[in-house]
């Protein structure tokens, strides 16, 4: 019997999820799992090429959603499904919840179009656990401004991120069986304690 699990990390830009990816991967390795750590958009050579385009070129919002799902199709075929079939645990830095949040919430693309793409690209695959790192917009903005050169999404205005965050929170309420919300304003050590508890509970 395979115990392979699919875990996703989500949150608006500046929510601090990246800090915790390696920590959770290490927790799982310490529990004897083989872990594949990957990201979206990206995770394959085609996906990384699409990421570069998506993060830097202006395009129609439907083109953006279609390219996100095109990169995802390749990612699932080349990385996620083979890893799960081997019995590995997969951690992806973002997945389809990000498309609902950014292209649906932020850019206001009709949700039904995203539901149709999701049903086409991964009718039978959903994360087993989604860690949603949640912060107020001003905290996220301050973190972003303190870091690096901002990409196309990171340069968006407050109302875009408010709508993106709201859609993440709405999905967390819609799918409570797989979402865990994490207050990402807490000190890193406290978040790590919480993550340790979440993983222990999830991998019983
Ligand atoms: P990252 O900075 O967390 O790696 O994510 C890259 C950016 O891509 C981030 O601003 C969110 C955005 N994004 C979408 O807009 N839709 C998606 O489906 C995904 C996976 C990411």
Architecture overview:
The protein has a 5-stranded parallel β-sheet with strand order 2-3-1-4-5, sandwiched between helices. The chain contains 8 helices and 5 strands, in the order E-H-E-H-H-E-H-H-E-H-H-E-H. The two termini are 15 Å apart. The mean pLDDT is 96. The longest helix is centred in the middle third of the chain and has 26 residues, at 61-86. The protein is an alpha/beta fold and 204 residues long. Bound molecules: thymidine-5'-phosphate. The site of thymidine-5'-phosphate has 13 residues, from helix 4.
Whole-number average pLDDT? Answer: 96
Intertermini distance? 15 Å
Radius of gyration: 16 Å
Instruction: Give the class from helix and strand content and strand pairing.
Output: alpha/beta
How are the secondary structure elements laid out?
Layout: E1 6-10, H1 18-30, E2 35-39, H2 45-56, H3 61-86, E3 89-93, H4 96-106, H5 111-121, E4 129-134, H6 137-147, H7 158-174, E5 179-183, H8 188-202
Parallel strand pairs: 1-3, 1-4, 2-3, 4-5
Helix pairs in contact: 1-8, 2-3, 3-5, 4-7
Bound molecules: thymidine-5'-phosphate.
The site of thymidine-5'-phosphate has 13 residues, from helix 4.
List its traits.
single chain; 204 residues; alpha/beta; five-stranded parallel beta sheet; 8 helices; 13% strand; binds thymidine-5'-phosphate
């Amino acid at each position: 019997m395979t115990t392979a699990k699919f875990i996703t990390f989500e949150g608006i830009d500046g929510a601090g999820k990246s800090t915790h990816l390696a920590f959770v991967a290490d927790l799982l390795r310490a529990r004897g799992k083989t872990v594949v750590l990957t990201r979206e958009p990206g995770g394959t050579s085609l996906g990384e090429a699409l990421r570069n385009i998506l993060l830097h070129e202006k395009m129609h919002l439907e083109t953006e959603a279609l390219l996100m799902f095109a990169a995802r199709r390749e990612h699932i075929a080349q990385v996620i499904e083979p890893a799960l079939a081997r019995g590995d645990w997969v951690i992806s830095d973002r997945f389809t919840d990000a498309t609902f949040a950014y292209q649906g919430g932020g850019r206001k693309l009709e949700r039904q179009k995203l539901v149709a793409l999701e049903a086409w690209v991964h009718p039978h695959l959903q994360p087993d656990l989604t860690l949603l790192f949640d912060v107020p917009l001003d905290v996220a903005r301050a973190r972003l401004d303190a870091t690096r050169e901002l990409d196309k999404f990171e340069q968006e205005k407050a109302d875009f991120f408010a709508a993106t965050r709201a859609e993440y929170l709405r999905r967390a309420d819609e799918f409570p069986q797989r979402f865990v919300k994490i207050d990402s304003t807490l000190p890193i050590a406290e978040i790590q304690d919480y993550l340790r508890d979440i993983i222990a509970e999830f991998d019983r």
